[in-house]
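Re: weekly structure request thread

Next one in the queue (650 aa):
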Amino acid sequence: MRQSIKTRMILMIVPLVCLVLAGKSVCTLWMTTSAQEERSYEAATEQARRYANELDAANRANVSMACTLARMMEANTTKNRAEIMDGLKRILLDQPELLGVYVGYEPEAFDGRDSSYRNAPGHDASGRFAPYWNRLQARPRVEPLTDMDSSDWYLVPKRSLKPAVIEPLNYHGFLMTSFVCPIIDSGRFIGFTGVDVSLAHLDADVARIRVFESGYAFLASNTGILIAWPDKRLIGNQTLNGLAALKHNPDLKRLAAAIREGREGFIKTRDPLNGRAVVMFFAPLKSCRWGMVMVAPVDEILANVYHLRNVLILIGLGALVLVTLAVIWVASSLTKPIENLSRAADYVAQGHLDQHVPAAHGEIGVLANAFNNMTDKLKFTIESLEQHVRDLNLARASQQTLIEELEIKNAELERFTYTVSHDLKSPLITIKGFLGYLEHDASTGDTAQLKADIERIASATDKMQALLQELLELSRIGRLQNPYEEIDLNDLTREAIGLVAGRIEARGATVEIVDCLPRTFGDRPRLREVLENLIDNAVKYGGAEAPPRVEIGMRREAHEEVIFVRDNGRGIDPRYHARIFSLFEKLDPASEGTGMGLAIVKRIIEVHQGRIWVESDASGCTFCFTLAVKREDKTEEDSNGNRLTDHPAD
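Done, posted below.
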């Protein structure tokens, strides 16, 4: 039986149009979801790398401590064993995070008098100088290092002549690791120094890392020993290879091999805790080649990809349904073949979707109108898909912008590390220099000079402690916050004035709130710290030729409220307006403080989504800032109940 025109049109047009649209939709779906998945993996790998760098900072500091101690031993000329043991004890008492600090010399390498110290405190039966001050018991004590010739903390620095981080071990109930450094004399190994540090804090730090909704993070040593893990019973008692055998998961062996080689990347596998499909993103801690691992459930890391895929599938199906219905509607109105429709169909097949069938009368006219409607809808569907592709390209460009911003943040972190190491080196050099003078003063009996040298060392130590404390304060801003609340800035300013009342009275200054300040929403103690710091600086440097006068007020600019603190001081050269908000920057090196006050102020303002700047002329300085934090800004709490901001800390 011969098929009708309607049937033949449906059988020819519908499959062809469906095939074209389906092919285009599949290609678009595959390209879009693949690119989105790749970006998700790259972002998670970068996050693992960032966490690894944060955890590695403490390890680098401990290696530096061991190396500083080694350099002091190399520079020591007194060869006084009791003096060195007393110095090790002071280091242990001053550094509560240390479990032990020690020095171990080769036989007769210290002063050639080992036989005179047999079984003395800090010496073994041969008199070898190897004091180990530790707090492994209830009270700090000293004992000689044992089993030196068979222990990594002795053999590794001896063989490599380089600083090293020793693999973790359980010792006297502590999971700890050793940071060691060789003592070199004329190119020859004569001993080593080291510090022992508990790894319990690393498990706590890693446990606070959030990986999507239900993921987690863990830390493994270079040989695969679990340092941080959700099941605390396995910490220090299990390795990745052991876990791989226990869970019959060969992917964990591949992860252990990658950590051992210091590589970064990701592995798709099953979660050893619950069997879920996960991706393990890993990055090395470069100082010790340990591995920081983030375990992310596949369904959570690819949630956006799945959502985008479903949207595209629905769009494609909708387009196919619309086109199919349009073709069926056109075909059902056909009564006879028409040449104009055939020619118009040829043009449409060539991609000319603007082609219309000329108007006609009767059934031909109805058929022409139906065909014209079909081509319009087909053009609209394709243009919609093309517009969606353009939107996705814009999203990709936005992602690239975020990556570039992250690279800028990494560059800022490198500059921050360089500045910190440079400013911390100065008090260390001072301490080292004056330690050399103590021996001379003691031998000559010059107690006055000896006391002066000790005071200089104490002053340098206080300076280093102040720098470290303010660095810690700066690092906490944005990570740990007090609960946000509604604040009356008038009351908060009066509180800040009361906190610096001593300096105000000492300088005979006048501090006045000249305008009614607004209400805001934020971290009350942090914002009080901002006002206290700005008012204190204004009183300290104000009043170049008259009693200091400080004004606190508010002015409106465009669509924002600007709070200002104005003084009548000498002003600041415009060349230094940006520089004064950097770390350790002081225009007057002889002035008190560490040069971090304005850097902390700037960070607090930025966490509140505001900005700060300085205006200056011959009549004084005006520090201005804005606050953009609103009540609806989201906050969340960590495991200790501390309020965390939505914005990542730099």
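The two ends are 77 Å apart (CA to CA). The first strand starts at residue 98 and ends at 105.
Next request, please.
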